[in-house]
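Open question from group meeting: does this chain pack into something compact, or does most of it stay loose? Before anyone orders reagents, we agreed to write out a predicted structure and look at it together. Recording both the input and the output here so the notebook holds the full record.
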Amino acid sequence: MYIVHSTFAVPEQKAGEVINIYKNRSRLVDKAKGFKDFLLLQNEKRPGEITVQLTFETKEHYLEWVRSTQFKEIHDMEKKYPDQELAAIVPTVRQYKVVAT
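Structure tokens returned:
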């Protein structure tokens, strides 16, 4: 398995808005080859810190997703978000290979 975290910080007062955006996400990634799971995580001590966790069967499946037109569509929509403060946020991305379960 291959897990990717995209972590970003938003103003705490906007955390609920961001969570609602993800609750209503397009779900395009759910149809990607090798996709296993999506989780949205909120840091309990720093509520403005949000992490998107994606799980794929393999790194190759993840890379296929990143190169897809659907991935580009989603990220182009984010850039057009009306709240420019949120649209300008660049996440920190970390990638993990699962080595034991």
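Observations to bring back to the group:
The chain has a mean pLDDT of 93.
Residues 11 and 48 are 6 Å apart (CA to CA).
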